[in-house]
Amino acid sequence: MHLLTFLEIILIFLLSLFVSGNNLSAAVGTLIGSRIISRIGGTMIGMVGFITGFALQGKSMEGAAHSLFPAPEYYVVLLLLVVIAIFIIAQILKSPLSLSMALVGTAIGISLRLGLNLNFGYVYFLVLIWVISPMLAIAGSFAVNRYLGKIHLDKTWNMTLALKLLLLVISFFTAYTIGSNTIGLMAAFAGFSIYTEIAVISGIILGSFFLSKGVLKRVGEDMYSMRYFNALTSLAVSSIMVEAATLFSLPLSSTQALTSSVFGAGLSYRYKALFLKPYLIVVLTWVISPVTGLIVGYLI
Hints:
The chain has 300 residues and is an all-alpha fold. 80% of the residues lie in helices and 0% in strands. α1 (3-33) crosses α2 and α11 (254-268) runs antiparallel to α12. It is globular and about 60 Å long.
């Protein structure tokens, strides 16, 4: 095996470790926050969803990788090294970071520095999607939750049980979309091969179980104590948006979509306080992550 290929596999494994650990909260945070399932059970659902989405639909993100980073193998190694370094520094400084958005920003920064044939039309459209998608998620989640709140879906035992089962299914689907979009994009930069796929799956398993504990509260428990149908609709709105983005080979932060959906659900409650600080922290990541990646990628 070529040395650069070996380095790519090691770096893809590490990045998969970090991505799965950080994004597990976006998939099962509300599920655990609703106390439907234990942390271990939620971790299992998220892990299997990641792997399934990556295996079945991850290659859909190849178009995004080619548009953002039309570079030879040497520079792919550089890209992955820079993103991992940014993540480690952010963790040390306890600063918020979206790995998928940092990855996109870094790819654009390196491409600009090298004068590569970057698809600027795609980049402009992607930025537009990043701006519009939170507003759509908030509006969609608000409207659906306000409507469902009027018909009192969780008043009967049978309906409550049905909502719990649906929440389990939609949590799996959310993990699936993260596997196909965020993790698929990461693998697409390195190129799909049996070695890459093994590295990614191994990273998902280890990251889900050993790096997720500290971030699981961020979306599900710290932001909002959600009723079943609120958690269900928040996950449904966000996962549908991420899946739609995957179909068009557009990287979309699952945390961005879910946080916006949870915020919309919170706004739909008329008489309950909504804690803004956790949302503001996540919003900050939407600016910090791609800009940091862009600057570091260009300067490196």
